Amino acid sequence: MGIVAIVGRPNVGKSTLFNRLVGGRQAIVDEQSGVTRDRHYGKSDWNGKTFSVIDTGGYAVNSGDAFEQEIRKQVLAAIGEADVILFMVDVTSGITDYDDAVAALLRRSNKKVLLVVNKVDNHNRIYDAHEFHKLGLGAPYCVCAMNGSGTGEILDEAVLHLSPDSDAANDEDVPRIAIVGKPNVGKSSIANALLGEERNIVTPIAGTTRDALLSRYNKFGHDFYLVDTAGLRKKGKVHEDLEFYSVMRTIRAIERADVCVLMIDATQGVEAQDLNIFGLIVRNSKGCVVAVNKWDLVEKDSNTMKRYREGIQKRLAPFSDVPVIFTSVTEKQRLMDVANAAAEVYKNRRQHIPTAKLNEAILPVIEAYPPPAIKGKHVKIKYVTQLSSPSPAFAFFCNLPQYVREPYKRFLENKLREQYNFCGVPIHVFVRQK
């Protein structure tokens, strides 16, 4: 697809314009400066042409922000891959030193640059916008990202400079793999390692990633979207608005994902918050792979991995049929195993078993071990079928569904797992009236 990047100094409204162009609240917007850090990708379309939009962090020098250098790298990467650049400035503050620095950078880029003057929400400010002719980047486009005025003119001009063959293919069927976990367990690091580039900012500071960041992974026979998310802390520890919005983006990413890679810190083991995140994955009926990161920091003997895996599965019970991969991002250990396991779990989640084969395999087991009689009532299961749902769900039809208790449903689930490969996927068992 063609790519349009939005760049500028901090707090000029880049994320607001990004949300306007992609048609949703994908990027976090706040009055606080420096909210956006990583490159944030979205999809937009205008006059029948579909293209990617990149939101970037504010370009600054000597600002005192701990992430300043990393943000600049992300901005430069966005400029490098963009076809059209929207350079945003703020009419209320005029030209600043940061604006001059970005303008000098863009003049050297040899890319098509559209100068976008934001916050022009009345006629008087239109006159003030002409000051930005000094930047030497052509006539300014006056917009108000908050209410969308003026954005049509920008898009009309931008799509003229996108190549004719830049229309997007339908990618709705591409799987989504979300990397989730507590802060500082290595989510962004493993995403960067798999992608083979510094796609997401990585620092030792907890809470570095704020948005849910989407990247296309198309290597080694795999094709899926990789979603890096913000770390999830305990609810009682979330006090700032920004972290609250980050948590909401992560929860939304889990809801939209097909498979979640739950990252655990090997040096800390499975903690209560890891179990909370796992519960969130299971409640949303998503596939799950557990990646135990920082395995290189654990002192090991010949049985350490086996004991650790059994301990994790015991903590995750009753749903313990989950792949557990021991990785080290810094040492590049077993990273492809994580990608392979996620792809396998996605395949397991999508499989549909024909009703005839299902009954042929399961009904003899049910006849050998029927539901226990309750109050003299004998339950007879007639047949079973798989429902048409995004995740595996099976309906068992019988004469007295009200007498089938939860332990027997768990027994039926275990028998299904024995017969078919549903590793990493929650199974729903329903008992219905024949």
Explain what you see.
- Helix content is 33%, strand content 21%.
- It has 434 residues and is of the alpha/beta class.
- A six-stranded mixed sheet has the order 2-3-1-4-5-6, with helices on both faces.
Blueprint (SSEs and pairs):
Layout: E1 2-8, H1 14-22, E2 40-46, E3 49-55, H2 68-81, E4 84-90, H3 97-107, E5 112-118, H4 123-128, E6 141-142, H5 151-160, E7 176-181, H6 187-195, E8 213-219, E9 222-228, H7 241-256, E10 259-265, H8 272-283, E11 287-293, H9 304-316, E12 324-326, H10 335-350, H11 355-368, E13 381-386, E14 393-398, H12 406-419, E15 428-433
Parallel strand pairs: 1-3, 1-4, 4-5, 5-6, 7-9, 7-10, 10-11, 11-12, 14-15
Antiparallel strand pairs: 2-3, 8-9, 13-14
Helix pairs in contact: 11-12
